[in-house]
Amino acid sequence: MAVTRLKRKDRYNKTVSRLEVKNLKLATNLELGSRSQQSTKDQLAKNNAVLAALAK
Asked: Can you give the pTM of this predicted structure?
């Protein structure tokens, strides 16, 4: 079976849908709950603690 080249519209849709999925994965927010509690060993938590100490 020969490989068919996608039409321009289909190539565009494929690219856009791939980027949309990527953006949605990156944009997931932390929700309140036991599974998504931010770790205290997390680098972001450490940075926030340092900034809070400097702000005092």
From this structure: 0.35
